[in-house]
Design brief:
The chain has about 280 residues and is of the alpha/beta class. The chain folds into two domains: about 150 residues, Globin-like, CATH 1.10.490; about 120 residues, STAS domain (Transcription Regulator spoIIAA, 2-Layer Sandwich). The protein has twelve helices and five strands. A five-stranded mixed beta sheet has the order 1-2-3-4-5. The protein starts with a helix and ends in a 6-residue tail after the last helix.
């Protein structure tokens, strides 16, 4: 007689056997989203994700998390190279949550898994899907910002890009010195992006700012206050230890301003991974 573990392995093998077929379903579901060239380049990316989802059914959760971390770190460069927005990549993950989740349900019923056994199985699967969104979001944001920081400083100073990572969360990475002109440009773009994109949260990343003095801090406070007036919550990240020491020595306080040591912590606070 088959045990529940045997059945879970059988379901995992079923998902793995269908990974090539499942990998083309996203393109067939909506051919208007991608070009055929991009879709072809995404095939192996999808197949690896499907394999990891299959592993979540039969392997230990720790092993699967480890595979997800590696997948997130290695595959995100493809997304950035293809110039695909993060929300589209996350939609890929959700598409396969639904598709594979339905397959798990059908196979569980066919193999007579108990309700309790099915609950354990689907809970493990959902946990891995949530972690996939987590690592994809974090790796994408880090990679995108790293690409910006690697560009010429003169080009960076002419643009202040907003990285939209979910429907209502955006990241504003600031690179280079902030003078009065740039501060005004920053405020205008932050307000325009925040309102036109319908954002609820904006994370201002300062890891590329070489110095924060009283003038820079004053500019930042004005931007934060302006965003708050239009209903956008703001957090600061990327304040390096040496910058923090300088701010303290200058008497600059961040009362009323939320700050985090990393983008990951800021996104967790904004409940990115619970959506």
């Amino acid at each position: 007689m088959e045990t529940s573990i045997d059945i879970m392995r059988k379901i995992a093998d079923k998902v793995r056997s269908l990974k090539e077929q499942l990998a083309i379903q996203r393109f067939n579901a909506d051919k208007n989203i991608y070009s055929e060239i991009n879709d072809e380049k995404l095939r192996s990316w999808r197949e690896e994700l499907i394999r990891i989802f299959a592993d979540s059914i039969s392997e230990s959760i720790e092993e699967t998390y480890s595979h997800l971390t590696e997948w997130g770190n290695n595959s995100v460069h493809l997304l950035v190279d293809l110039n695909l927005p993060l929300d589209l990549a996350i939609e890929e993950v959700r598409f396969y949550r639904d598709t594979i989740g339905e397959l798990i349900k059908d196979e569980s019923m066919k193999n007579h898994l108990s309700l309790e056994e099915f609950y354990v199985l689907i809970s493990r699967f959902d946990s891995v899907v949530d972690r996939a969104v987590h690592w994809l979001s974090l790796s994408y944001t880090k990679t995108y910002i790293a690409r910006i920081q690697a560009a010429e400083m003169t080009a960076l100073e002419l643009s202040i890009p907003m990285v939209r990572i979910t429907e209502d969360i955006g990241i504003l990475p600031i690179i280079g010195d902030i003078d009065t002109k740039r501060a005004q440009d920053l405020m205008e773009k932050a307000l325009n992006y925040g309102t036109s994109l319908g954002l609820s949260f904006v994370i201002i990343d300062l890891s590329g700012v070489p110095m924060i003095d009283t003038m820079v801090a004053n500019h930042l406070f004005k931007v934060i206050d302006a965003l708050k007036l239009v209903g956008v919550k703001v957090a600061l990240t990327g304040i390096r230890p040496e910058i923090a020491q300088t701010m303290v020595s200058l008497g600059i306080r961040l009362e009323g301003v939320t700050s985090f040591s990393s983008l990951q912590n800021a996104m967790k606070e904004f409940k990115l991974y619970n959506r």
